[in-house]
Amino acid sequence: MLYVYKASAGSGKTHLLTGFYIELLFRRELTPSLSETDGENRDMRFSEILAVTFTNKATAEMKQRIIDEIFLLSTHPASSQYYHLLTVPDPKGHVPTEEELRKRAQEILKGMLTDYTSVHISTIDSFFQQVLRSFSHEMNLQGNYEVELDANAVLDHAVSEFLLQLDPKSDKETFSWLLEFANNRLKEGTGWNVHQELYKLSKQLVSEAYRKYAEQIQAFTDDKQQMREYMQMLKEIVKTWRNELKQLGNEGLQLLDAMQVRADEFANGGKGATAYFAKYASGESEELKNTLVKWSENPEAWFRKNDPHHSLLSQNQKDELLSLMQRLVQHLSPAGMCHYLSARFISKNFYQLGLLSKLRESADRYCKEQGIKLLSDTTQLLNELVMEQDSPFIYEKTGNRILSYMIDEFQDTNPLQAEVFFY
Fold first, then answer.
1. Taking a C-beta distance cutoff of 8 angstroms, is the pair 218, 360 a contact?
2. Residue 109 and residue 416: Cα distance in Å, rounded?
3. Is the pLDDT of residue 35 over 80?
4. Burial, 106: exposed, middle or buried (Cβ in 10 Å; 0-12, 13-18, 19+)?
5. What is the per-residue pLDDT for 182?
6. Residue 343: is its pLDDT beyond 80?
7. Cα 339 vs. chain centroid, distance in angstroms?
8. Alpha carbons 154 and 164: distance in angstroms, whole number
9. CA distances (Å), 88 to each of 79, 93, 102, 232, in order?
């Protein structure tokens, strides 16, 4: 069963979670599946509950509250602020007495104090580390690896190592990516310090968006021929779209010439839609003018009200010009420009994928040499693990049999963390 509580900051979420944690330990009717699975009517054990939060402070606060309340229940049950939750009649109508609550609380408290490591209240990162270490052999991880919290230091070292190891003669492609990267940064005026700009780029390596597709990106950039073919395809998309726009612009100029009408004789003079035919033909503009949209819908707006051109142009000429304007509007519309703009943007930043892959290799080498793992690696590795294994087996291998999951601030979990819990 899934319970979702929505509440703003400071509204008592920790208080509510603490109460629910205690209820699970005392009220068997909340966990009927235990009787079905174990063949006996028993209470849930504290080692079967996992409560995760986002900060060490919140973890410590929740642990302290639970221990304090269970201690109070073991001495003066009626004094506990959760007493009313534990004296609700069960399905058979039985209401626990104070003595029964005190005895149960003493059992729980004794178990917690003698086996405190089985009190699973921790941050998400700590819990993921615990699970990951249990699978260090299966995942070819050093059993004594250390978690590096300072990703910036690792990334800075990765950039330095990449620049030192780069040989322009033996790795011309990577060197060309770096030159393009530096030149674009100079054009954009963002900075001339290559190390600093690469360091900014390297921060993508620990981002959720990159890590989710890191393996696919690595495989793609490793295939240089495939990269060249893809880049050529992008260039063709850009070239084809621009050529089509130039062709439409030239058609417009030819139509005006055949009709013996100058662009400045239309409404709005030299600023009208027809004045842009020359700019489209030369590649000077890719702008969709508002007057072009209006004129493509209403030919009566082409000339002023009493202009003789209304009657001088034949219907066939009007239809041809109207059709051309409509084709231009379609070509310059968001739908018509979608593939063109996407290809132009991707090709402009395409080399960054290759640089990121090289920086990732450099960072991975450094981490392996130092026997460390970035904290951001944990979620990705665990996500891959749960995709390959049955979740019950994963948690049992850690020495735990988790039956109830409590997640504080769930809206702050990233998609990879959420997937680990859902699988």
1. yes
2. 35
3. no
4. middle
5. 85
6. yes
7. 23
8. 15
9. 16, 9, 16, 71
4 vs 174: CA distance, rounded Å: 49
- SS3 state of residue 5: coil
* Nearest-angstrom CA–CA distance, 277 and 271: 11
E strand or H helix at 372, and its extent?
strand 372-374
Task: Name the one residue in this structure whose structure tokens are 């080399």.
Answer: 351
What span, in angstroms and rounded, lies between the C-alpha atoms of 340 and 242? 9
CA–CA dist 83, 104 (Å, integer): 13
Q: Which long-range contacts (CB under 8 A, 24 or more apart) does 159-163 make?
A: 159/195, 159/198, 159/199, 159/202, 159/359, 159/362, 160/195, 161/362, 161/365, 161/366, 162/198, 162/358, 162/359, 162/362, 163/194, 163/195, 163/198
Q: Calculate the CA dihedral of residues 245, 249, 250, 252 and round it to 10 degrees.
A: 140
Tell me, letter by letter, the H, E, C secondary structure of 99-132.
HHHHHHHHHHHHHHHHCHHHCEEEEHHHHHHHHH
Residue 162, number of CB atoms within 10 A of its CB = 22
C-beta separation of 322 from 299 below 8 A: yes
Nearest to 26 by CA among 92, 84, 75: 84
Q: In the block, which residue shows the tokens 């109830």?
A: 404
What one-letter code names the amino acid at 387? M
pTM of the model: 0.58
**Of 219, 237, 152, 212, residue with least CA distance to 353:** 219
Query: What is the tens place of the pLDDT at every residue in 235-291?
Result: 999 999 999 999 999 999 898 888 888 777 777 776 766 778 888 998 888 888 888
- Which residues, at least 6 apart from 368, have a Cβ–Cβ distance to it below 8 Å? none
Neighbours of 3 (CB within 10 A): 7
| Structure tokens given for 20 | 């629910």
* Average pLDDT, integer, range 87-100: 88
